[in-house]
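Consider this pair:
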Amino acid sequence: MVRVPGHPRAGRTPYVFEHILVAEELLDRYLVEGESVHHMNGVRDDNRPENLELWTRPQPSGIRVSGAIAWARSIYDRYVDVGTPPTVLTVSPEHPWS
């Protein structure tokens, strides 16, 4: 963990996980609600950019089809014009271990 006073994810203590900070630096923004950073090789202290993937939460359970479509469009709109940073950090939740 890295000491980052004032970071939006810092709770009672001013510390944030390093992989989150690496991803945010690559994205040039803070993570938004529903986003998380996944270690592709499963090694939680391997915070190299090429080992990190950006994931989003799956759609809420009990959702109507119209709501699912709106949810999917909001996820798509969040990333369509942004693009992926120049690493393997991706916006796709696909992973061979999923």
Remarks:
- The chain has two helices and four strands.
- The beta strands are 2-3, 15-16, 35-39, 52-56.
- The CA atoms of residues 23 and 53 lie 8 Å apart.
- The radius of gyration is 15 Å.
